[in-house]
Amino acid sequence: MHVRITRLEISYEDFKLVAENLSMPPSRLTALIGPNGAGKTTLLKALAGLQKLPGGAVYINGQDLSRLKDSQRTRLVSYVPQEFSTAFNYGVLDFVLMGRSGYLNIFASPSASDYRQAEAVLDYLGLQRFREKKCLELSSGERRLVLIARALVQDTEVIILDEPTTFLDIKHEMEIAGLLRKLVEEKKKTVICSIHSLDLLPKLADQLVMIKNGRILASGPTPEVFRSDLLEKLFDFPLKVDQINGHVVVLR
Amino acid sequence: MNGLKNNKRQKYILLAAWVLPSILLFLSLGVGTYKISWAEVFNTIRSALRANQNLNLSPAAANIIINVRLPRILLALLAGSAFAVSGSVLQSLFRNPLVNEYVLGVSFGAGFGAAASLVLFSRQFPPQVAAFLFGLLAVFLVMTISEGARNSMMAVLLTGIVVSAFFQSLLSGVEFMASPYALQALFFWLLGSFSQVTWPDLLWTGPMVLLGLFLLIRMKWRINVLSLSDDEARALGVNVKKERFLVIALTTLITSAVVSVSGIIGWVGLIVPHAVRGLVGADNRLVIPVSAGLGASLMLLADDLIRAFSPYEFPVGIITNLVGIPFFLYLIKRSKKSWG
Q1: pLDDT tens for residues B297-321?
Q2: Per DSSP, what are the bridge partners of residue A212?
Q3: What is the third-level CATH fold of B2-333?
Q4: I need a labelling partner for B269 at 20 to 30 A (CA). Which of A29, A76, B95, B187 fits?
Q5: Sheet hosting strand A16-19, strand order edge to edge
Q6: Where are the domains of chain B?
């Protein structure tokens, strides 16, 4: 599914995000990069339809998100936050099942078919070992996987993730990165996420959107945009993109 | 409840929680200062159910059972369910296991509404309705004032304390204006007791509580989702503002309907859900219905103890306060750990 933004303006007290005519192609992974406080999370929430838009609009396959009901929007796009927000220690299966909520009316509980869908996602992600565990007993990396599982149970074509690899050890970082590629290549999902790790980007992202101080600095296919000059300008820090043994690396 | 079917232990707990109040209801009819045998209790119920007049019943015993003990027991069951369910629901909604209707100001808001209706309008405006409106106003004030605070949990708790204090002051104003006779009744009512209940009271309170409980128990899965952050719940397809308002209105309805008859009985909504989560975990599909049954049973047992051992009407609200406040402090002490 194609995600498109017309001129978008979101203002806070002393911060303004402006994004014009941004387009994220279907069945590709688009990564948002930029320094802390650049507006990545705000843009992601806008793309997920979770942000009030005083100006502009987000279209998914031509449908204006702001004109959709919550239950309609939830079938188009899912959102994966950085961390759990619950104070209660739900079982992993119950937590993943919450992804079906948009398909249920206010008085309904998940049906047998919802359970089958959740089990299938846990199988697909190799998470059956966590099935009986409690959410708050999982490690950070495991929690991210469970959050992604919940988004998959929601069964949307567009998945938006807020910093899915931040604060993870290298093993879990690579596991999540591999999973996101798998979702794009096998399931043909349109994945949009913010990423801090520059080393991951060349192999992970098909498209990049560079954000600085609430403005889009550059956007386009990764091989075209992932350049030393743009990265230096983005982070105000000397960086050099180079190739070692055929791998693109960033030298500091 | 597909996922719950496999867990036998949880199923038995749910069954026990719902059967226990029915057993206690029957047993409690025999408890009280006036001695009535189990046979008399049994015959009175049979007579009432079948309109059978040939069972040689003592009119005094039948009158006590039907018109004094039965409404009191039913109110205790309804009150226990209402407080425990509203506690478990509000804790989920505010993502804070320390929240209950007492902390959120609902109890004192509803208490003021009912007291104003009794004293200032001589019941011309139904106390149940006044209690509901002022209970809703109290929780609306807490939510509006604490909205947007950096530490929202702490803000809710502190605002709840302030709003409770505000309605307590208004309540004192009503007490000041009350006649000596009304003041005595008001004072005893505020301490929290089931002793004054009559069938007409129950005819107002019962349907309100049963309707609220029915809808909240039906919403048990949705309440799981509402316990996530607003952004997450919205991303999952929940209309957070509308559904949160509905849930708060329902919890206020059941709490205020009880408070308008029984007075303020605190802390049941804190103790019961906490104990239930220890038994069945955090899933509200179990926590809410089990809390309803267990809350009803505990409330009735507390009232039974008073009727069995106290020669005079000791307010049950004093007992729940004496147990609840240390329990609240204990929960604050261990609040760094997870819940459920």
Answers
A1: 999 999 999 888 887 788 898 888 8
A2: A215
A3: ABC transporter involved in vitamin B12 uptake, BtuC (1.10.3470)
A4: B187
A5: A8-11, A16-19, A215-221, A207-212, A29-33, A190-194, A158-161, A77-80
A6: 2-333
Between CA A205 and CA A32 the distance in angstroms is: 9
| B125 pLDDT tier (thresholds 50, 70, 90) | confident
Instruction: Give the pLDDT of residue B70.
Output: 94
Residue A217 host element (H or E): strand A215-221
H helices of A74-221, in order, are 92-97, 112-124, 140-154, 170-185, 201-204
Q: What is the ipTM of this complex?
A: 0.90
Domain residue ranges of chain A, discontinuous segments joined by +: 3-76+156-251, 84-155
> Nearest by CB to B2, which of A74, A89, A115?
A115
CA-CA distance, B55 to B65, in Å (whole number)? 15
For testing the chain A interface, which of B2, B89, B286 should be mutated: the one with the most A CBs within 10 Å?
B2
Give the separation between CA B68 and CA B313, rounded to whole angstroms.
13
What's the whole-model pTM score?
0.88
Q: Which two tokens stand for residue B20?
A: 């226990």
Class of the CATH-defined domain A3-76+156-251: alpha beta
Please tell me which residue of chain B has the smallest CA distance to A94.
B283
User: CB distance A112–B218 less than 8 Å?
Assistant: no
| B215 contact residues in A (CB cutoff 8 A) | 107
The minimum CA-CA distance between B212 and chain A, rounded to whole Å, is 13
User: Residue B81 — pLDDT band, cuts 50, 70, 90?
Assistant: very high
Structure confidence at residue B337 (pLDDT): 55
From A180's Cα to the closest Cα of chain B, the distance in A is 19
| Residue A34: pLDDT band with limits 50, 70, 90 | very high
Please provide the DSSP assignment of B156-169 as one string: HHHHHHHHHHHHHH
Average pLDDT of chain B?
87
Distance from CA of B159 to the nearest CA of A (A): 20
Identify which of A89, A90, A109 has the shortest CB distance to residue B1.
Answer: A109
| pLDDT at residue B321, rounded to an integer | 84
Angle at A7 between CA A228 and CA A27, to 5 degrees: 65
Query: What does each C-alpha distance from B262 to A155, B188, B266 come to in angstroms?
Result: 49, 10, 11
Average pLDDT over residues B72-79: 96
Which residues in chain B have Cβ-Cβ distances shorter than 8 Å to A87? Answer: 95-97, 227, 338-339
Set of chain B residues whose Cβ sits within 8 Å of the Cβ of A98: 224-225, 228, 236
**Chain A partners of B277 at a C-beta cutoff of 8 Å?**
88
Tell me if A10 sits within 8 A of A46, measured CB to CB: yes
Residue written as token pair 């309907």: B257
